[in-house]
Design brief:
Shape: elongated
Strand order of the largest sheet: 1-2-3
Strand content: 35-45%
Order of helices and strands: EEEEEEEHEEE
Radius of gyration: 27 Å
Largest sheet: 3 strands, antiparallel
Number of helices: 1
Number of strands: 10
């Protein structure tokens, strides 16, 4: 059965756009239909997708029979997203929507401080961000920050904490990386992960670390958060 697809691409839905997709229709009403479904998207943004199929009311599944006598009976369907509404005015068959975005970048800088030519502490500066939300979101598109650290010879992490604040996460890891010589080692490993805000919002329970008057406290926190994607 013949089919055709319509893609309307908004390249500015996210920050740092990559330009317009080659198969883009210039508007929702643009009659630019393509004969195949797109499975690989190389440009970030929001895509509104529409679809049509062509019926074939006779057993002959092609237009290749002699004289093609049934061609005039083969019709294209309406657009799937014809924006029909129910009695309440709600659209019953909206466009399918695809959001194409990038993974966040868990970047940081560090400066090592030495005592008697041996590393004694490390200062870490958080530079994590999501290219898709780098400028229009106060938290640069991130909602969770996970820091871990250990000495190179350790079999498990000495510090492991998750934060919902970039500032508090940075303060915690810096507090951890002090007086390293006194602990007997100076070679350390740091692991940093972040989560973006592009997934669906769901209620989740996590152990979140926060600064309190008496020091750092980790407690169970149940919050509606975007799940990342």
């Amino acid at each position: 059965m013949a089919q055709k697809w319509h893609y309307f691409h908004n390249p500015n839905y996210y920050d740092n756009n990559q330009g317009v997709a080659s198969f883009n229709a210039t508007s929702e009403d643009d009659d630019k239909w393509i004969a195949h479904e797109v499975n690989v998207f190389d440009k970030v943004g929001k895509y509104e997708v529409d679809y049509r199929i062509k019926d074939n009311p006779v057993p002959d599944k092609s237009d290749n029979s002699p004289g093609n006598p049934f061609h005039e009976y083969r019709y294209w369907s309406e657009d799937y997203a014809a924006n029909r509404t129910d009695s309440s005015g709600h659209i019953t068959n909206p466009h399918a929507v695809i959001y194409v975005h990038r993974r966040p970048l868990a970047e940081y800088d560090f400066v090592a401080h030495k005592a008697n030519d041996v590393v004694d502490s490390v200062d870490v500066t958080n530079n994590a961000y999501d290219l898709d939300h780098e400028y229009r979101d106060a938290n640069k598109g991130l909602n969770l920050y996970e820091w871990k650290w250990k000495f190179a010879s350790d079999s498990s992490w000495r510090g492991d904490a998750t934060f919902d604040s970039a500032t508090e996460g940075e303060a915690w890891i810096n507090a951890q990386l002090k007086n390293l010589r006194a602990q007997g080692m100076t070679n350390i490993l740091i692991q940093y992960r972040v989560r973006d805000i592009d997934g669906p919002a769901e209620l989740e329970t996590l152990n979140i670390t926060r600064k309190t008057a008496s020091g750092w406290k980790t407690s169970s926190d149940t919050t509606l958060r975007n799940q990342g994607a």
